[in-house]
Design a protein that fits this description.
heterodimer, A: alpha+beta, outer membrane lipoprotein receptor (LolB), chain A, 2 domains, 12-stranded mixed beta sheet, 6-stranded antiparallel beta sheet, 20 strands, about 25% helix, globular, B: two-stranded antiparallel ribbon, 11 helices, 2 strands, ABC-2 type transport system permease protein (chain B), membrane (chain B)
Chain lengths: ~375, ~280
């Protein structure tokens, strides 16, 4: 009898250990207590970010989470729809801090790897065994927002003041405590719209690493939703020198190597939109609305676009999948609404986009006429 | 050995057979069953079948996922075979040997003899679990070995092209395949442990097979329902895709480690339930 009871106790202990273990494994990585960091003002924080020109050597996982509420679009297929539909996308990134870098986008049974070895950008797709090779310097393209010699002041302190002053017109900027992002203590810089702004957004939070001053996470929060509607940031991050072998790439035996293909595709796209009118900006700050008029017929069935895969699809059909049909005294068309913004695509080619409710778009459309 | 025989006391305390002899006898008993041998041989033929199929179809192109990677890349064959077999046939093998281990013995009436024998219940379960575990390991190893040979014969030994686009040396490739073998074996052990727990409760081997396969199917269905995705971290099957991580370079460990820990939890639950039942069974 005693042996039986002992057996039951041991067995139950095993089961308990297993169940508790599963629970622990399923727990999301806890945020932990907020780290204690020296006080810093928003201005100082922005200034220190601007002074940090170089990204240190690092390896990390970047997760992008999307709760925009867009319906799945089967017509787009592939990577594009993966990024647009709700869910989390992960990428591995490495950089040696001297301009070389590596990004890999893992799929369930495939991977796309991009390696920039200092002179050549290699883009490998395992699914079709293809390497795109281009010798452009992506560095200049990658940082178009880098403070140049233009209007921006070259002195970081002055530039920080300018930026804060610019933002201050429509929003409140403050350092809202600290947080731990990817295991690193970070300051939380919060931008919130002033109450007069007619926007769907509640605030934008940027977590900035306290040591290296690189942005670790960007979260966009909308009204009526406690969870971020969009978030991109590191889920793991190691700041350490990286293996130089990571930043070289040799096309494997039997792979198709395509040289400079990407560039041609990129050049072709602007041609089609060249005759489109420049977008007009209505309003300022958070309730800015972009109004554009596309040449008539762009959205009709007479001109069908071609996707990357080569199959044709009708843009109006795609709009029907994404949005709902609306009409009013201002015209009729499709309304695509997400948690962060609204877009109106009218049948006459007019498009209005903004992080605002539908009514603000209609007002903007009327003001442009 | 001789000394042990000479020193044997005259039955004034219960005899204890050395554990190694018990294990060897269980292994002989398991591997002599025709169904075990047939199952292992048939599973090992799968890589040959895939290899020939892809070689013939590969000239025309087509296929997706890992099949596309396999063309001209023989070392992917063992990994691909294990990935495909892990979803259904390897759990079936685990369930079959777990069903034979306890429920099968019970249905023949031979479990009673084992329960009466002067062998601790814990020892009995350990020996039975060892038999199941070894069968699974032999099958997984067999699939991998046949896969490597088929891949080398059909494609050559240039090395393994990873999903990340670089080429691993022969030794590295074998290391990755070895890791996949260990990982897959452990996952199937977790399934077999649950099957062993069911096996302890019934004397019908068929019930064990049905219950285990139904469980695997239900897990698969839950994975497909978006509204139930909060359950995903608890499901054993939901992390089975992480075996493809061994084909990436540098290899991400987090998925493999996490799924191994999850399998360890299932193993603890299965063996815990089985132990509680076996130790409280009347002799």
């Amino acid at each position: 009898m005693n042996g039986k009871q002992a057996g039951l106790v041991v067995g139950a202990a095993g089961v308990l250990a297993g169940v508790v273990g599963l629970g622990v494994l399923a727990l999301p990585a806890g945020a932990g207590p907020a780290p204690v960091l020296p006080q810093v003002s928003a201005e100082q924080l922005v200034q220190s970010v601007l002074t940090t020109k170089t990204v240190p050597a690092l390896a990390g996982t970047v997760s992008a989470t999307n709760n925009l509420g867009l319906p799945a679009v089967p017509a787009l297929g592939g990577q594009a729809s993966k990024f647009l539909t709700d869910g989390t996308t992960k990428a591995q990134v490495w950089t040696d801090g001297k301009g070389k870098g590596r990004v890999s986008l893992p799929g369930a049974t495939s991977e796309e790897t991009m390696v920039f070895d200092g002179t050549t950008l290699w883009d490998w797709t395992s699914q079709n065994n293809t390497v795109h090779k281009s010798t452009d310097t992506p560095e200049q393209k990658a940082h178009p927002d880098k403070p140049g010699s233009g209007e921006m002041a070259t002195d970081p302190a002055a530039a920080a003041k300018q930026i804060i002053a610019l933002i201050d017109k429509d929003s409140t900027v403050k350092v809202d405590g600290t947080a731990t992002v990817a295991g690193r203590p970070a300051y939380e810089l919060v931008l919130a719209p002033k109450p007069t702004e007619k926007t769907l957004l509640r605030e934008v939070r940027i977590a900035i690493d306290s040591e290296t001053k690189i942005p670790l996470q960007l979260s966009v929060l909308a009204n009526g939703n406690a969870q971020p509607v969009a978030q991109i940031g590191f889920s793991t991050l190691q700041i350490a020198p990286q293996d130089p072998a990571l930043f070289t790439f040799t096309p494997p035996a039997g792979a198709n190597v395509v040289t400079g293909e990407d560039k041609k595709v990129a050049d072709k796209a602007p041609d089609q939109l060249k005759n489109a009118a420049k977008p007009q900006i209505v309003g300022s700050g958070w309730d800015t609305v972009l109004v554009e008029k596309l040449p008539a017929g762009t959205l009709g069935g007479d001109r069908s676009a071609t996707t990357k895969g080569g199959e044709n699809f009708d843009p109006s059909k795609l709009l029907g999948q994404l949005g709902k049909r609306v009409s009013g005294p201002w015209g009729s068309g499709y309304e695509i609404s997400t948690a962060v913004g609204t877009a109106l695509v009218l049948d006459d080619g007019r498009i209005a986009v903004g992080a605002v409710p539908e009514q603000a778009l209609i007002t903007a459309l009327a003001s442009v006429k | 050995m001789t000394a042990a025989v000479l020193d044997r006391p005259a039955l004034d305390r219960p005899l204890r057979a050395p554990l190694s002899r018990l294990l060897a006898s269980e292994l002989r008993w398991t591997l002599r069953r025709p169904r075990t041998v047939i199952a292992i041989v048939l599973l090992s033929l799968v890589p040959i079948l895939i290899g020939i199929g892809v070689t013939i179809a590969g000239r025309r192109g087509g296929g997706g996922g890992l099949f596309a990677t396999l063309v001209g890349n023989g070392f992917v064959l063992p990994i691909l075979s294990l990935t495909l077999l892990l979803t259904m046939l390897l759990p079936l093998l685990g369930a079959m040997s777990a069903a034979d281990a306890l429920a099968g013995e019970a249905s023949h009436g031979t479990l009673r003899g084992l329960l009466m024998a002067p062998v601790g219940r814990g020892r009995l379960l350990a020996v039975k679990a060892f038999g199941v575990a070894t069968t699974v390991f032999i099958a997984v190893l067999g699939i991998a070995v046949v896969g490597v040979i088929t891949g080398v014969v059909l494609v050559g030994t240039d090395g393994m092209i990873t999903l990340s686009g670089n080429t691993l040396s022969f030794g590295d490739a074998l290391g990755r395949i070895g890791l996949a073998v260990l990982w897959v074996t452990f996952q199937v052990w977790a399934v077999a442990a649950i099957a062993l727990a069911v096996s302890a409760f019934t004397e019908h081997p068929l019930v064990v097979m049905a219950a285990t396969l139904a469980g695997a199917l239900v897990f698969g269905v839950i994975t497909l329902i978006p509204q139930l995705d909060w359950m995903q971290p608890y499901l054993l099957t939901s992390s089975w895709t992480s075996v493809t991580d061994v084909l990436r370079d540098p290899m991400p460990w987090d998925g493999l480690v996490n799924s191994t820990l999850k399998a360890a939890c299932y193993l603890a639950i299965g063996l815990g339930v089985a132990y509680a039942k076996v130790s409280s069974k009347d002799g």
